[in-house]
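For the sake of transparency, this paper describes our internal protein records without simplification. An entry from our holdings is shown next, in its original layout:
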Amino acid sequence: MQIVINIDENVFTRLFDNGTEDYTIVNDDLFAIAKSIRKGVPLPKGHGDLIDRKELLKQPMDLANYPSNYVKVARTIIEADKEI
């Protein structure tokens, strides 16, 4: 299952950027992580690529080739799910 979660930046930093070992994660952070997972949005089976829409909006639009060339410039954040 793939889900999209919104996690507090401070919790993320303590987990990944500070070199925190697994055994030193405090209970408050564990509760925050669990809460973020519970509030996550499951991605449906067979979803397409999830892209950064803001990157699309920054690109000049080529109306002659829209949408095929327009969408190719977007950075894929999560690859498409091939299962249907």
In short: Residues 3-42 form one domain. The first helix runs from residue 9 to 17. The beta strands are 3-4, 41-42, 50-51, 76-78. DSSP finds four helices and four strands in the chain.
